[in-house]
Write a structure and sequence with these properties.
Elements lengths: L18 H25 L3 E8 L5 H9 L7 E5 L5 H4 L5 H4 L8 E5 L8 H4 L5 H21 L2 E9 L2 H13 L9 H7 L2 H14 L5 E5 L3 H17 L11
Helix pairs in contact: 1-10, 2-10
């Protein structure tokens, strides 16, 4: 598998791509996803885990809102992973993750995830290289367990935003009343560690790649949402699902 280098991957849509046409395609895909999610829920044989990672202001919340709210809320769960609690820290790092893995018939979304334990912890030197490698092996084993023993398909997404776009979006959180609730002064301090984060993410991608990552150019929301919706539809269609017949 080729080595991922984020500096060589664009954060924007290809030039000449028609925004309105892409948005129309996305709308059609979302209709398909609504039906496919209903089928997933009814058949109750498979599950889907969507892992969303990215720098602050890369658009994680927007992805969840704009792609998944058209689905039946009975069949979709969202779990946000923030700073671990004292209880969570008293267990192994995957303990708080595993209890939110998806049941059959469900789509589970992780807004940040187990990957925080080898990204932010590594950037801030709370986790050394040896421990990070051990954790990456454990993550690979955990994801293999889900796929092989619970019919779970995993979509791992990295929202690839540029530092320039991140700066603009963080500034909007100060200026725009509708976004001020998202403001966190530490986001600006974390942004100064951009190069360290990129190094940690690239190392993660190249060690935790048994299930490949979808690197999504994220400076333009319309293109980001199109790529993610397209890949999610592909995953669900490939499950070859069928509605159950009448119960006997």
């Amino acid at each position: 598998m080729p080595v991922i280098q984020l500096s060589k991957i664009s954060t924007r849509a290809p030039r000449g791509l028609n925004k309105e046409k892409v948005k129309a395609k996305t709308a059609a895909i979302l209709n398909d996803l609504s039906e496919l999610q209903n089928l997933l829920f009814a058949e109750n044989k498979h599950s889907v885990l969507v892992v969303i990672q990215g720098m602050d202001a890369s658009g994680k919340d927007g992805v969840i809102k704009n792609i998944f709210t058209s689905m039946n809320p009975q069949g979709v769960n969202v779990q946000s992973f923030k700073t671990p609690t004292a209880e969570e820290l008293s267990h192994d790092f995957l303990w708080r993750i595993h209890q939110h893995s998806p049941a059959k018939g469900m789509i589970q979304i992780f807004n940040r995830s187990h990957y925080e334990d080898i990204i932010i912890t590594r950037v801030h030197k709370w986790c050394n290289d040896k421990l990070a490698l051990d954790r990456m092996k454990a993550i690979n084993d955990f994801e293999s367990l889900l796929t092989k023993h619970n019919n779970t398909s995993i979509l791992k997404i990295y929202l690839h935003v540029s530092p320039e776009e991140q700066k603009l979006r963080l500034a909007e959180r100060i200026k725009e009343p509708g976004k001020q609730w998202k403001y966190n002064e530490t986001d600006f301090e974390e942004a100064k560690l951009w190069n360290d984060y990129m190094k940690a993410y690239q190392n993660c991608f190249n060690h935790c790649n048994i299930i490949p990552w979808l690197i999504v150019p994220s400076d333009q929301n319309w293109y980001k949402e199109f790529l993610i919706a397209t890949e999610l539809r592909r995953i669900l269609k490939n499950l070859n699902m069928h509605y159950p017949g009448l119960k006997k």
